[in-house]
Each structure stands twice: as structure tokens, then as C-alpha cells.
Amino acid sequence: MGFRRKARELALQLLFQIDFTGDHIEIPPSFWVENNALPQVKTFAEILVQGVLKHLSEIDQIIEKYTQHWSRDRMAAIDRNILRFAIFELLYLKEIPPKVTINEAIEIAKRFGSEDSGAFVNGILDRIHHDEETLDSTDLKQGAL
Predict the structure, then answer these.
(1) What is the pLDDT of residues 78-90, one digit of tens each?
(2) pTM for the model
(3) What CATH number should be reported for the domain holding residue 10?
(4) Which pairs from 14-21 meet CB under 8 Å and 24+ separation?
(5) What's the total number of domains in the chain?
(6) Are 16 and 8 in contact (CB under 8 A)?
């Protein structure tokens, strides 16, 4: 398993706990030791968690926009938090190819979510990515005028 996959899985655990308790937790050093987290795993997981928390309102608005007929609270917590870190990656970590972000989120959803989680996450992230690409190309065309 690559270090980013491991970091995403650890970020999911942390985001799930924060979501469940409603508290922004201080991550104990023992968490990283117990999970055999290499420094680059810890760094990337922390980037994901802190980024999601910093942009939570914006990310949750995006989730609500793309999950028509599904309130955020009705959605499975695992799916919701996978979407959160994947949307953060899509919007703010431009050095990671979107297809990598989406594929990783799908695999993590299949592993930790329900039978339908992979397809659900895939559908939402694909639509977000498609819309973002359309906006980017429209912005580029308008800037060229």
C-alpha cells in the first residue's frame, strides 16, 4: 500500500471520529505509532484532516449540491467523510491527478463502506470533477478573449 493510501485511510479514521464526536480532537502521538505511520503518511494525513476542517462549510455545501435528495446527515458517515477528503484533494491539491483522487476514494469506500459506497462515491466525485473541468476550460476560454 502506498503512503498516500495509508494516509487517506488514517485521515478517514480521524475525520470519522471528529464527525461522530463533534469535537476537533488533538491527535495523540500514540495514534501515529499504533498505525505504523511513516513521517510522509502522517504529514499527508494531517494535510487532509486540517484542510477538510478549514474548508468544511464549503465542502459540505458541495456535497449537498451533488447529493440531491440526500441530506448530509442521512448519508453514511464513512461515505460523507471519504467525500470530504476527496473533494478537498480535488479542489486544493492540484498536484494530485483527479483520477487518482477519485480512484483512491472509491477503493477506500469499497473497503470501509457499505456494498453501495464505491458506486455512490464514484458518482458524486465524477460529477464534481466533470463540472470543475468544465468551469476550468470555460475560464481559460474567457481569459483568452
Answers:
(1) 999 999 999 999 9
(2) 0.88
(3) 1.10.940.10
(4) 14/45, 14/49, 15/48, 15/49, 15/52, 15/81, 15/84, 15/85, 16/77, 16/78, 16/81, 18/49, 18/53, 19/77, 19/80, 19/81, 20/77
(5) 1
(6) no
Give the integer Cα–Cα distance in Å for 101 and 5: 10
Residue 123 and residue 71: Cα distance in Å, rounded? 16
Q: Which residues of the chain have pLDDT under 50?
A: 138-145
Structural domain for 32, as ranges:
3-144
CB atoms within 10 A of CB 85: 27
For cell 485521515, the residue is 11
